[in-house]
Amino acid sequence: MGLDQKTTSHTDSSEGPRQETFISSPSQQDYRVLFELAFDGILIGNSGGVVLEANEAVVPIFGMRREAIIGRHVSNLPFTSESIVQKPFRFDLVAQGKNLVTERDLVRPDSTHVTVEMRTGLMPNGNIFCFVRDITDRKREETALRESENRYRQLFEAESDAIFLIDNDEGNIIEVNSAAVALYGYTREELISLKNVDLSVEPESTQQATHGAPFTKGNVIYIPLRFHRKADGSIFPVEITARSFRQAGRSVHIAAIRDITDRKRVEDELRESSDRLKQLAETLEIRVLKRTQELEAVNLSLEQTVAQLRKLAMDLTQAEEHERKRLALLLHDHLQPFLVAATMKVSLLASPVQEEEQTRLVHETQELIKSAIDASRSLTMDLFPPILLDAGIIPGLCWLADWIGDKYGLDVEISCEDELKIPKELGPLVFLTIRELLFNVAKHAKTDKATVTLNDKTKPMLQIIVEDQGGGFPENGSQTSSASTSMGLFRLRERLLAIGGALDVASRVGVGTKVHVSIPIPDEPLSKQGTNGGFS
Fold it and tell me: Which of 473, 468, 453 shows the shortest CA–CA distance to 518?
């Protein structure tokens, strides 16, 4: 401290050799009083860093007795190791006459953590002085303030509305958030260099609102509509909510600005809709009349549809009756006569006959039985070909193509992918659907070629296309094509609809017909779903 000092040495059993400095001249007594009464802790040490003297204010800071502090090297005081490593003692800089201010952390013997500020300098006699101040509370307050400011900044930046902090006297923009930068298209630095009236298309109204009587401390102002200008010159509507307060001795206000372009557009659209509704209301009577006419037309169409459905239902009944008669005739005219004749021949064998006659009767009986078997096999093929059970749907379709070719002279090409897999339960439905469509081609299309394409690329649906380049028929084919064709397609469509499928027909006269069938592929066997493929 610039005092003349007298140094003596003595030995302390607990601390070792210690040097003690005391003031000898009466003129220095006042300095001693100041030394002891100082609010800050004061350490005086030699150039090597050994503490020569400490005042009483140091004791509560370090939590150590004064006698335990004096004589120690300053690095042996209870500073944390991190504090010493990060901020080593620079006695070399002090020796050069530099004053150092350093913050350090220490842990008192009672485990209390303290942060101190150390102001170190060189005394005229070559010793080193150090003022030590406990700044723990100040650091805690600074940390709390910093955390509060961080929370404020996070909230400020997280707000989706554009936030402006504006000086009330000059209208200068003091601070903005990221949303304001994004909304107006300026950089933060550019916005802070502007005044609030620079952003407004109505500067007089903006200035009046800022300095008006309602805009006093604590009052909240709500401006439902104002027009602002972006950096690119585009004008857009905003909604403003503002509140005034004092900051650092000046009057300021914080304004939350929201772009209401979408809302304004919706409001305009609603207003236009309201106008249109009024116009519609004025012509309601005409529209009701028109709607009535439309409903009458729809009703007539429905009646025609119902009549057509009734006719189709009658055709269906007749077709089923025709099928029963056909099967009965097949049994009566083909199978039964063979069996009756065979029975008669066998009965003749039971009577005495010549050997030659017996041989003839046996041969004739064999021929009759063979004809009965052929008739039975033909009927079986008509109803359900066994090849479906033995080989599967693809071989079954190949057999069908050959059979129709032999019987009707129709050349059928079957096309499908090698990896196509059709569940066994769907086989009968697919086979009978394709057979019905090919029958229609053979009987009505007036062509000798047809193609059948199968794929399951649009899973879970199986797609089937049966196409020909025959005579075709108009869009309303039910009116011009034969009753049996319409009935067949109707029955197919109804069966497919029952399992979630579909059947669409596209045909043009002279161009041909394309039938597109969609059949759902079930996740589990159809037998578990209680269906037999849609055919009874």
Answer: 453
